[in-house]
Write a structure and sequence with these properties.
Number of domains: 2
Largest sheet: 6 strands, mixed
Radius of gyration: 23 Å
Distance between the termini: 55 Å
Oligomer: single chain
Shape: elongated
CATH superfamily of the largest domain: Zn peptidases
Number of strands: 23
CATH class of the largest domain: Alpha Beta
Strand content: 15-25%
């Protein structure tokens, strides 16, 4: 293990160059063309044969140690967020890596470089799958809905999309390290899940000055709907870690016409599937009631977002112990509370043992306009060392620990297929009000 970790420094410049390139070329989910191409070229230069995701961004490669054992998946996320006010955001798209994913990808490349060194696989058993995965940040719902309609994707998130395509069918356990603005390397028990919603209020256009009485104002209905949802917030129970945070992407076509369409995108986040489903039903009731009160109709598109994420307890212990082996004098903080953010690592956590800890090295507000990687050594180089320590601990000694963790883990779903079928059952769409002879029928 010491030899593997020491080899990271040999590839330090490769890692740091990758972090800077990806930072300077931010791209949002399923649009990471330059990022995916850059990493793929670097992997190819190292001698890897890659399997590319068909029709979208991302790729993976599998390393076979030649000895029997489980398959370990290690991931790096390709996409950025959108924050136009960030000084270094893309001037056209507003994209910026205020999420730290650029550091993840750089660390993944460093791991790949080390594993190509002579005798790097000595003492290891099983297989190692390295994956550059797209679209962790669940944004641009309208764009991704279009990709769905075109048959290019089935799921908003890159990891459930890769699961659907069978790319992870052979995987037994997985980890990835995210970048954080905290002062320490750390872990959390898990994170909330989310459902993605697109809400279209449908009114009737009319002259805003001359004949507003002939119109039905979709914008007013939408604002009433948001206010009605806000009135539900005091009913949210703290134990469920519920979040509802809408944005309006369309509020009318021109100022001189009553808006006939208003569009909202939002999530419902929660710690459990049950909490999300119950809250979603009540949110829909409030949204529909607002449309009904003004004689509008409303289309609600509910899509599977991400599952609540639960870190396997044995994998959490692995992350801490592997960190301490490499950095015995560094602090490692085990946070007791769940994160109120969401990640599609939650989807993987439904079917296999995973862990998703954090490497320090950033500053500023996550997803904000002051977020930067200020310590790339910790965020990228030391992250790679930590992950190699986890890899070695899992797959050495005949992969004894990896086998033990897999055998002791009880998945929430018996298979990827069963999990995705459940997520599909949560989806619904279409108009929610039918007006008939002075009466209205609603569908939640």
């Amino acid at each position: 293990m010491e030899r593997l970790i020491s080899l990271v420094d040999k590839h330090k410049q490769l890692i740091l160059d990758a972090e800077r390139y990806i930072w300077k070329n931010p791209e949002t989910g399923y649009k990471e063309v330059k990022t995916s191409k850059y990493l793929a070229e670097k992997f190819a230069e190292l001698g890897y044969q890659l399997t590319f995701a068909d029709g979208i961004t991302g790729f993976y490669t599998t390393i076979d140690t030649g000895r029997e054992g489980p398959t370990l998946l290690i991931l790096g996320e390709l996409d950025s967020i959108i924050c136009p006010s960030h000084p270094e955001s893309d001037p056209v798209t507003g994209a910026v890596h205020s999420c730290g994913h650029n550091a993840q990808c750089a660390a993944l490349l460093g791991i790949a470089a080390v594993l190509k060194e002579p005798n790097a696989l000595d003492g290891l058993s099983g297989k190692i799958k390295l994956c550059a995965v797209p679209a962790e940040e669940l944004l641009e719902i309208e764009y991704r809905t279009k990709l769905m309609e075109e048959g290019k994707i089935k799921y908003f998130g890159g990891k459930p999309e890769f699961m659907h395509r069978g790319y992870f069918d052979d995987v037994d356990l997985a980890f990835m390290v995210h970048t954080t603005n905290s002062e320490t390397f750390s872990s959390v028990p898990g994170a909330v899940g989310c459902m993605a919603k697109r809400i279209i209020y449908k009114g009737k256009a009319a002259h805003a000055g001359g004949s507003p009485h002939l119109g039905k104002n979709a914008l007013y209905a939408a604002t009433c709907g948001i206010n009605a949802c806000n009135a539900l917030r005091e009913t949210f129970q703290e134990k469920d870690i519920l979040r509802f945070h809408p944005i309006m992407t369309n509020g009318g076509a021109m100022v001189n016409a009553i808006p006939e369409t208003a569009v909202i995108e939002t999530y419902i986040r929660g710690k459990s599937f049950e909490a999300m489903a119950d809250t979603n039903k009540r949110i829909n009731q409030a949204l529909i009631g607002a449309a009904l009160s003004l004689g509008n109709n409303i289309e609600i598109v509910d899509k599977a977002g991400y599952a609540p994420h639960i870190n396997d307890k044995n994998m959490l212990a692995l992350a801490k112990n592997a960190f301490k082996k490499v950095f015995p004098d560094e602090e490692f903080f085990e946070k007791p509370e769940f994160s109120s953010g969401s990640t599609d690592m939650g989807d993987l956590s439904c079917v296999m043992p995973v862990v998703h800890p954090y490497a320090k090295g950033a500053k500023g507000t996550g997803h904000g306009n002051d977020y930067y990687i200020v310590d790339p050594i910790n965020a990228c180089v030391n992250s790679a060392k930590w992950q190699l320590s986890m890899l070695y601990t899992l797959l050495s000694d005949g992969a004894t620990l990896a086998k033990k963790i897999v055998s002791e883990h009880t998945p929430r779903f018996p298979s990827i297929k069963a999990y995705l079928e459940y997520m599909d059952s949560l989806e619904s769409d279409g108009d929610r009000i039918t007006y008939l002879d002075g009466k209205a029928e609603i569908r939640l």
